[in-house]
Design goal:
Number of helices: 8
Protein name: Adenosine 5'-phosphosulfate reductase
Number of domains: 1
Subcellular location: Cytoplasm
Shape: globular
CATH superfamily: HUPs
Number of strands: 6
Order of helices and strands: HHEHEHHEHHEEEH
CATH topology: Rossmann fold
Pathway: Sulfur metabolism; hydrogen sulfide biosynthesis; sulfite from sulfate
EC number: 1.8.4.10
Helix content: 25-40%
Largest sheet: 6 strands, mixed
Oligomer: single chain
Pfam families: PAPS_reduct (PF01507)
Length: 301
């Protein structure tokens, strides 16, 4: 389902919004792109710029990824959301010939533009992305019981939908893995301000966040330098892209994750990163009993 087909996706054009502070935590700014920084109106043109310390941050990220490959070998996996941060990580894995597998979730409600990145990764890098999908019977049961779009009725129902479409397939994705790599960055939100390079995910695995210290400008500077493929929805003021019914464009200066579940006054998390979220308890929904045991894992972020 595309964003235009969804009754829950705002049609409001946010492009003319007023720019707020460049250094506001978790805020997206249009300031900082110099002449020739990218096509007018593109995310590269808006956000890419070289910042002090970029080369050092890049070197640390490469070392983190090299160490993951050395420490965990075939037990390591990049759990990619196909968002721009994860596309940067995929480019680094390919560029440095690291033996790290790639996998993603197809929730059944992603934008076509998101799914189109899977063959682009194959064609560009020669890497396969394993795709995990929800259990069809669980999705049908959830829809029959709650309707196709129950997300806006309560936080509990929204998290239950995430449980069926994200957490359960993520648990299968990570089965047998000892480490997984995400695109989390400290700047993305207040909830993620303390993201480390490595952490225990609470399920006996090591969670790796190689871009933890990167700024939004760093991400797009790298994309510009290496012509990294990315979701064209980023050009439409969507820095954080999830399922189509639950993602809208944001105003310049809004929090990175303001376009996710925008009708909620919540931490803007779905339980995939429990140490940086308000993950649901096992009593919050009829589906959570089979999904929340793996609430520390996952993508898309």
């Amino acid at each position: 389902m595309s964003a235009e087909e969804s009754p829950l996706v705002s049609s409001l054009d946010r492009g003319a919004a007023t720019v707020s502070s460049l250094d506001a935590p978790g805020a997206v700014s249009a300031i900082g792109a110099g002449p020739g920084a990218g096509a007018k109106g593109s995310a590269i043109g808006l956000y890419a710029r070289a910042t002090p310390g970029f080369d050092e941050r890049l070197a640390r990220t490469v070392e983190v990824l090299r160490q993951v490959a050395a420490d965990f070998g075939p037990g390591a996996l990049q759990s990619t959301s196909l968002g721009v941060e994860d596309m940067v990580i995929t480019d680094l894995i390919a560029r440095h010939h690291l033996p790290i597998a790639l996998a993603t979730l197809d929730t059944g409600m992603l934008h076509d533009e998101t799914l189109a990145l899977i063959p682009r990764i194959r064609n560009r890098y020669g890497l396969e992305v394993e795709v995990f999908t929800p259990v069809r019977e669980q999705v049908l049961h959830f829809v029959r019981a709650n309707g196709e779009f129950p997300m806006t009725r309560s936080v509990e129902l929204r998290k239950a939908c995430c449980g069926v479409r994200k957490l359960e397939p993520l648990s299968r994705m990570l089965t047998g893995r000892s480490a997984w790599i995400t695109g989390l960055r400290r700047e993305q939100s207040a909830n993620r301000a303390d993201v480390p390079f490595r952490e225990d995910d609470g399920q006996g695995r090591t969670k790796i966040n190689p871009l933890a210290e990167w700024r939004w400008a760093d991400v797009w500077h790298y994309v510009q330098l290496h012509d990294v493929p990315y979701n064209p929805l980023h050009d439409q003021f969507m820095p954080s892209i999830g399922c189509a019914p639950c993602t809208r464009a944001i105003a310049v200066g809004e929090d990175f994750r303001a376009g996710r579940w925008w009708w909620e006054d919540s931490a803007k998390e779905c339980g995939l990163h429990a140490s940086h979220s308000d993950a649901p308890s096992a009593t919050e929904s009829p589906t959570s009993a089979t999904t929340t045991s793996h609430a520390t894992s996952g993508a898309p972020v």
